[in-house]
Specification:
The complex is a heterotrimer of chains A (about 250), B (about 220) and C (about 230). Chain A is of the alpha/beta class and about 250 residues long. Chain A has a single domain, classed as P-loop containing nucleotide triphosphate hydrolases (Rossmann fold, 3-Layer(aba) Sandwich). A six-stranded mixed beta sheet of chain A has the order 6-7-8-3-9-10, sandwiched between helices. Chain A has a four-stranded antiparallel beta sheet with strand order 2-1-4-5, with helices on one face. In chain A, helix 3 crosses helix 4 and helix 3 packs parallel to helix 5. Chain B has about 220 residues and is mostly helical. Helices cover about 80% and strands about 0% of the residues of chain B. Chain C is mainly α and about 230 residues long. Helix content of chain C is about 80%, strand content about 0%. In chain C, helix 2 packs antiparallel against helix 8 and helix 7 packs antiparallel against helix 9. The longest helix of chain C is centred in the first third of the chain and has 33 residues. The N and C termini of chain C lie far apart (about 55 Å). Classes of the chains: A alpha/beta (about 250), B mainly alpha (about 220), C mainly alpha (about 230). Chains in contact: A-C, B-C. The interface between A and C is medium-sized, with 29 and 24 residues.
């Protein structure tokens, strides 16, 4: 594992972030910082606010108070240029969200052409490269529904990579997959980690998190409860994390 | 509203016309419903010739304008030596039209009942007709209600074509009034409002039924 | 029944029928294209967050869908002339048909757009697409693909409904039958012939729209799926 030096510049920083959904106080003062090149895994029970925290980073949820800085963008600022933010941040969802009417290749080239204004040939070259990266070079002409769940999720990763983001977010990307398909997706993520991509993953795969992540954040009841290296999962400090780890999910 | 020619008598005349519109709609719905039910059953019959015949019937009627069907009925009756009033020709044409569309809508509803229901009924050793009557049709009925109510809107609107063969329903009543008042725009506005008052509640009802049906299905899903 | 059918004298008027059919096509085609574009815009308006716009589009659809086309044709025809605009019957008919088909297209397109999953929009936004790009690439195109069969049926219905414009003396197919029967005194045969002509037109139109769908929606062709998931 290539350990990113902690002296690298910080690319994602949350400070005292609060988020409510109606009466439900989901994030109660969340703060953490991620230096460039680091892989951070956020774990916790469902309802602990881990997915919400991730979605706030890409401004899919708008926070109530606190600040979020991502690659120099002030995400909490209502005047933010969303398109610039989203060119720097890639996100992969649990439910893939590929566009069903487009081929794999068209799914990938859509944003580089429409957003970055690349020529068809340049976009195709990117699609080819990212598809090779996720091991699906032979599926360029397929439609999403012709692929397995694991393959679709890898295409979704390629689609995000095609925008050459600074940070990649993964929101429980293997939760909808059969166990035998989970491995192929995790391998792709691991490769990306080795390539030095800054990543934040919300995941239920504890073993994977311990192996790949530089830092693990355990969230509990809307707060960052415990933070540490992968080793932390073997020596939990708080009774809540111990409880969480022993009961599984 | 009573500027110039339009007076209370005219409105009364329109009201009577509206009543005939309702009458013709009911005839078309009941007659067309009975014929449409038969067509839906024939359309999924195990007998191939019967199936083909109904498919042909549906295709022909759905590929021809109702207005032309109406003229064919009207003149067809007269060459048979029957000088019948417009109501009869209009009723026959409407029943033919409704049978083809409702038949096809209902066929879809019967086929929307999950295959497993047929199989389950078969495993209980029910005869084909028993399966249909006791298991499939009751479920199809629930699915069929919203589109059927929705189609009633089409029926009411299409009875307006009967005016063209001289049957005095709402539109024809309006045209007769025009002949004396020469305010066609105003008269047609009133007529449109009356149609809207008849059709809009049906549309809303159909939508409500559909929402309820979808909600029920979603709630029933695991 | 002592009636001898005489189709020969009616068939002899085939050039007139051909002309009528051509006018039917001239009415149907632009009405479909313009009406569909207007209906799509109306569907976008209906989904808009601007309350009055959404209400206005909704009211338009409800009024048109709950009144007979025949009355709409009369309203446009007499309405335009009472405004002092002397337009030919053909123009009035076209306007009425556009108004009519736009309302139905709006309802169909709206259903298709509403069926697009929210995750699709999120994914597109996260790729940095603008609102307009999201609308075009992720909402409109797949929605159109999804509701294409319903649109096809609606467009065929519109073509058949152009027969109603004969009532404001547009010389299309049905009006041709009326003219021919007044010359030959063979109304039954004339309308049977016209019925066959409409049947042929609607079959041609279905085939044409099917081919068009294959050409435009490549996925449908590749996977052979009738209805998009």
């Amino acid at each position: 594992m290539t350990q990113a030096p902690a002296t690298n510049p910080v690319v994602v920083e949350l400070k005292d972030v609060h988020k409510r959904f109606g009466a439900n106080h989901v994030l109660k003062g969340v703060s953490f910082a991620i230096p460039k090149g680091q892989v951070v895994a956020i774990i916790g029970k469902s309802g602990s606010g881990k997915s919400t925290a991730l979605r706030c980073i890409d401004r899919l949820e708008i926070i109530d108070s606190g600040t979020i800085e991502v690659c120099g963008h002030a995400v909490h600022d209502p005047a933010i240029d969303l398109r610039r933010l989203r060119q720097d941040v890639g996100i992969v969802f649990q439910s893939y969200n590929l566009f069903p009417h487009l081929t794999v290749e068209q799914n990938i080239t859509l944003a580089p052409r429409a957003v970055k204004g690349l020529s068809g040939a340049d976009a195709l070259a990117i699609a080819e490269r990212t598809l090779r990266q996720v091991g699906l070079a032979d599926k360029a002409q397929a439609y999403p529904e012709q692929l397995s769940g694991g393959q679709q999720q890898r295409v979704a990763i390629a689609r995000s990579l095609a925008m050459e983001p600074q940070v990649m977010l993964f929101d429980e990307v293997t939760s909808a997959l059969d166990p035998q398909l989970t491995g192929e997706v995790l391998r792709v993520i691991e490769q990306l980690a080795q390539g030095g991509m800054t990543m934040v993953l919300v995941t239920h795969e504890m073993e994977f998190a311990a192996r790949v992540a530089d830092t693990i954040i355990y969230m509990h009841e809307g707060k960052v409860w415990e933070t540490g290296p992968g080793q932390m999962l073997r020596e939990p400090q708080t009774p809540e994390l111990r409880d969480f780890l022993s009961h599984g999910l | 509203m009573v500027d110039g020619g339009l007076n209370l008598h005219h409105l009364q005349f329109l009201a009577v016309g509206a009543l005939w519109t309702v009458c013709l709609s009911l005839i078309a719905f009941v007659g067309g419903g009975i014929a449409g039910g038969a067509i839906a059953l024939c359309r999924i019959s195990p007998l191939k010739p019967l199936r083909w015949l109904t498919i042909a019937w549906i295709q022909i009627i759905q590929g021809t304008p109702l207005l032309v069907v109406l003229f064919v009925c009207y003149f067809g009756l007269s060459i048979m030596g029957l000088e019948l009033p417009g109501l009869v020709a209009a009723s026959i044409a409407m029943i033919i039209y409704v049978s083809a569309y409702l038949g096809e809508i209902w066929r879809g509803c019967i086929e929307a009942v999950p295959r497993t229901q047929w199989e389950a009924a078969e495993c209980l050793a029910l005869s084909r007709w028993q399966r249909m009557r006791l298991v499939v049709l009751p479920q199809a009925l629930r699915i069929a209600t919203p589109p059927t109510v929705g189609f009633m809107v089409q029926i009411v609107k299409n009875t307006s074509l009967a005016s063209i063969v001289g049957f005095v329903e709402l539109v024809r009543a309006g045209q007769l009034i025009n002949n004396s008042t020469f305010q066609p725009f105003l008269v047609y506005l009133i007529i449109a409002a009356v149609y809207f008052a008849m059709c809009y509640p049906l549309s809303v009802w159909s939508r409500r039924l559909e929402q309820r049906l979808h909600f029920g299905q979603r709630a029933a899903a695991p | 029944m002592d009636y001898t059918f005489d189709f020969a004298s009616v068939v002899a008027a085939w050039p007139q029928f051909l002309e009528g059919a051509w006018l039917t096509i001239q009415l149907s085609f632009p009405a479909t294209v313009i009406g569909f574009v207007m209906g799509t815009l109306c569907a976008i308006g209906r989904r808009s967050a601007v309350r009055w716009l959404s209400k206005l589009c909704g009211a338009y659809v409800e009024v048109v869908r709950n009144t007979p086309l025949l009355v709409q044709v009369f309203l446009v025809f007499f309405g335009l002339s009472s405004l002092g605009w002397k337009v030919p019957a053909f123009t009035a008919a076209l306007v009425a048909l556009v108004i009519n088909v736009a309302a139905y297209s709006c309802e169909i397109m709206r259903a298709g757009m509403d069926a697009i999953h929210k995750g699709q929009l999120e994914a597109a936004e996260c790729l940095g697409l603008t609102r307009r790009q999201v609308y075009w690439h992720v909402i409109l195109r797949p929605a159109m693909e999804k509701v294409y069969p319903a649109l096809t049926s609606q467009f065929v219905l519109l073509m058949l409904a152009t027969s109603i414009t004969s009532q404001i003396s547009v010389e299309e197919l049905t009006a041709t039958a009326a003219r021919v029967q007044s010359e030959t005194f063979r109304p039954f045969e004339a309308y049977i012939l016209v019925a066959v002509a409409y049947l042929a037109l609607s079959l041609l139109m279905r085939a044409g729209l099917w081919l068009f769908g294959l050409a435009v929606f490549t996925r449908r062709r590749r996977l052979g799926t009738g209805v998009a998931r």
